[in-house]
Amino acid sequence: MANPLTSRAASAILLCTASFFLLFTSSNSEASSNILMAGDTLTSGKSLSVGSYNLLMQDDCNLVLYDNKISVWDSRTAGKVSKCFLHLQMNGELLIITSNATQPPLWRTETGGNFNRFVLVLKPNGNAVVFGTAVWSTGTGRMKGIDTFAVDNTNEKSVP
């Protein structure tokens, strides 16, 4: 059984982290959010944005991270099908799923674990990270201070 104090401390840390990113992101009303909460989806054509960075779920089912409109990372799922969306599961795993519920995910981070309060954050340094316990990142964080780390992504899967 989980220690309630540890669970409350973890929840408080996650809440503080999410609040920090909400507070220090652009207040421009035209700017997209840089946060995707567990259980939420990012549909084709929609993106998470902060500063010069844009994490876009493209219409061709490719999830691409752009810096000033230059691709710096992608899920390598372009053109496999159409009508896809990015979904952050309650267990912290990111999936690219088609509208056909019988088809397996096109891409996944293979990082799902215990159910927790997870959030995908596109950070101001260009790194997209699943927080709760950091379970996945694009590994694209720039050395712009001490806020740079990477998580091993060797488990992520793209369907051939």
Automatic annotation (TrEMBL):
Q: Which residues form a coiled coil?
A: none
Superkingdom to which the source organism belongs:
Eukaryota
| Keyword list, A-Z | Lectin, Signal
Which interval of the chain is the signal sequence?
Answer: 1-31
Molecular-function GO terms, alphabetical? carbohydrate binding
Per the database record, which ranges form the Bulb-type lectin domain? 33-143
Q: Output one GO BP term.
A: response to other organism
Transmembrane stretches in the record are none
Give the protein name, as stated in the record. Answer: Mannose-specific lectin
Q: Which organism is it from?
A: Dendrobium catenatum
